[in-house]
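Form 12-C: Joint structure prediction
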Amino acid sequence: MTIQPLLSVKDIRKTYGGRIGCTDVSFDLYPGEVMGIVGESGSGKSTLLNCMAGHLPPDSGQVLFDTRDRGMVDTLTMSEPERRMLSRTDWAFVHQHARDGLRMGVSAGGNVGERLMAVGARHYGNIRTQAIDWLDRVEINEDRVDDKPSAFSGGMQQRLQIARNLVTGPRLVFMDEPTGGLDVSVQARLLDLLRGLVREMGLSAIIVTHDLAVVRLLADRLMVMKSGHVVEHGLTDQVLDDPQHAYTQLLVSSVLQV
Amino acid sequence: MTQTLPQTRPMIRIEDVSKSFTLHNQGSAVIPVMQGATFDVMPGECVALTGNSGAGKSTLMRMIYGNYLSASGHIWVGETDVATAEPREIIALRRATLGYVSQFLRVVPRVPTLEVVAEPLLTVGVDKEVAFAKARDLLSRLNIPETLWGLSPTTFSGGEQQRVNIARGFAHDYPAMLLDEPTASLDATNRETVLSLIEEAKARGAAIIGIFHDAPARERVADREINVSAFTPAKAA
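Section 2 - Result
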């Protein structure tokens, strides 16, 4: 196959003092692929995500991204303005806590519109129309467009954060526990929504979670981390149905059956 | 590549496949479950896997679908060797070439039945109208009342869910199909419909591997039986 990866991660290593955050992580992500990263707290999955997304500087390694104008570029050595532009256009980051990804003092419509303005949209009417369209896509009623996110429920805040992130049509979305801390019924709705959007927009995504049901539903591929190392990697249902590594077997067998 | 008649080349080729499970958390017990599995399935042919419970019928099916890892050997489905393929190659294979009707519907919350059935067609790029027409046709043939089509199958009875699952499995004309007990617990009318669907799939050239505990059904649709006990490793001394 001659398809070029969208993201190519090479030998990422991050230590905190003498402690390993994550090490020896390498993989390619192809256009339209959704990859899950699972592991218990402290396994290094969030460290890895933050290194890839440019929120944390890794000690070594490369995060190559297939940019629109220059092809494969190491985002870790990009200039700061270039990386900032990337994170507003082709990249998106959905935080576990919506308040980390939203501006709580700005209206829902403003939260969505702000990202459009950051990439140069100036016409107020267009921005508002697009914002309302996106609120509708994430199932937030138009009459809430002028309300602040602080007046929203947790599930609505999370959907608003997704709208804010996807409005610029990114190609790669990083998600950190996107359904963490939500009610099960709200989770189901959010998952269904994410699944639909990923399909429709042909997004590539990297989802960090500890919830195996979430990755089963959303991810094509799965990476299992333990103590900063990748211990297993493969097709999602293969890793879950026929886990090879001792830790993955423990993880899968520890899930309560409903 | 030279032009060959479709009948002359197997659609599925299993070559010396083996499998063992290592239970790391139970004293690292290694359980060999399969060795030397070898057979072909031609286009338009239906092969029934037989053997006692625990002989490895389902294990072999899962290895062909790629959710169990093969320890060695090759599993060719069309041009893809499932035993060694990358995840994205297996996903592409499942999308267009290899269908699997399992015994249970894995229900995605909130998605209406009609969409559940049409989805395999939509993902291969079939026009929405055509996909939904096919889905409606299958749901009617399998006697799912039209009043249920707009609802999520989450709340359906077991039998209804199974029929939705079959409709979904037969929506796209896969060149290769795996059927795990497709007629289990169906009434006579629906059983007849499912057997017709299998015969139609064979007639259009699909290569099928199935597990049928329903012996009359097996005799009707299967061209050949393969007893998987032949691939069970001898008990270690």
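Section 3 - Comments
Chain B has a mean pLDDT of 92. Residues 188-203 of chain B form the longest helix (16 residues).
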